[in-house]
Specification:
The chain is α/β, with parallel strands linked by helices and 214 residues long. The chain folds into two domains: 84 residues, Methyltransferase, Methionine Synthase (B12-binding Domains), Chain A, domain 1; 118 residues, Rossmann fold. The protein is built from ten helices and five strands; from the N terminus they run H-H-H-H-H-E-H-E-H-E-H-E-H-E-H. Helix 1 runs antiparallel to helix 2, helix 1 crosses helix 3 and helix 6 crosses helix 10.
Amino acid sequence: MKNIYDRFVDYLLREDKAGAIRYAIEVLETGSIAVNDLYEMVLGPALNQFHCPENDATCIWREHVRTSIVRSIVEICYPYVLKAKEAPGFVAVKKTVLVVCPPEEYHEVGARMAADFFELAGFDVVYVGANTPNRDILSAVEHVRPDVLAVSVTNYYNLVKAHAFIEAIAASRPSIRIVLGGAAFKDPKHVECVGCGEPRQSFSSIRALASEVR
């Protein structure tokens, strides 16, 4: 696995989009890695390793370039998600998940990966994505009537916005299971900040959730 990670990071550091995408497809096609492992052990860690020095004027836009490369790979991976669902032994949960990010939360790559995790675990998934106004999240809950609401927050400044709609949904629809993901919720204090919900930061924890609600 380390060899795959190291080679992918090399493409990413050089911002070689074509090379990174070709390599991701290669390791999936050859069965060298599963989609969930590619996300958790390669793509996510590769993005998280980058930190901006104070005096590096190129860092932010380069980080955006690399994020866009990873986002493209995640979208390209979807046929492999469908293929995994067609494999013998796949069990559908017959429960629906709504995946959202609060207003002004523009980091959605983690949420997009989580959507595929839920699908690989057997859920039906409705992915709304980044920067969704609270009223529209409430509207989506009203129309989709999900069994699970998955909330992704990367920037902890957006926790207050997340708290507003989470509190409203928990009060009006107590049967909805609310799960929390994203970098902001790695701190237990931030989980407490939104008032309710349970952190599910890994594919294994989402598979465990599938077993619980099945």
